[in-house]
From TrEMBL:
InterPro entries: N_methyl_site, Pilin-like. This is Type II secretion system GspH family protein. The chain crosses the membrane at residues 16-37. The keyword Transmembrane applies. Keywords: Membrane, Transmembrane, Transmembrane helix. It comes from the Bacteria.
């Protein structure tokens, strides 16, 4: 005589409710990853922009030292600093799509020679420029 199992046979697989919960959890995790990736991209664009501004500032200081020019001497950033054979070979481009503008003269220490059009909205500005 065969003995019957003590528990009834259960169906294998997921119910519709369990499957829905799993899908919702996965979609939530994916959306969190996309938000994090977007914030990471924004931060990397901001830091790339600050690096471009710092490089331009160093190029202006190098030009000033090489030519022994005093502060507030007029310069043309696009012919004296940027371009083939100058301090920065290629045109400087903001990674986030902003435009760079410059003051047109050699700034005093702590003043930026160039800035980004996204400086007000996305903080594309260096935190401290006192040693520039």
């Amino acid at each position: 005589m065969k003995s019957s199992p003590s528990s009834p046979r259960t169906a294998r697989g997921l119910t519709l409710l369990e499957l829905t919960v799993v899908i919702i959890v996965l979609l939530s995790l994916i959306s969190i990853i996309f938000v994090g990736a977007r914030a990471w991209k924004k931060g990397s664009d901001r830091s790339g922009c600050v690096i471009n501004i710092r490089n331009a500032q160093q190029a202006v200081r190098s030009y000033q030292n090489l030519k022994a020019l005093p502060t507030y001497t007029p310069i043309n950033m696009f012919t004296d600093i940027l371009g083939p054979g100058n301090f920065i070979e290629h045109d400087v481009i903001c990674p986030a799509g902003g435009d760079y503008d410059h003051i047109g003269y050699i700034p005093e220490q702590g003043e930026m020679a160039m800035w980004c059009s996204l400086a007000a909205s996305d903080e594309h500005v260096p935190a401290n420029t006192s040693d520039w």
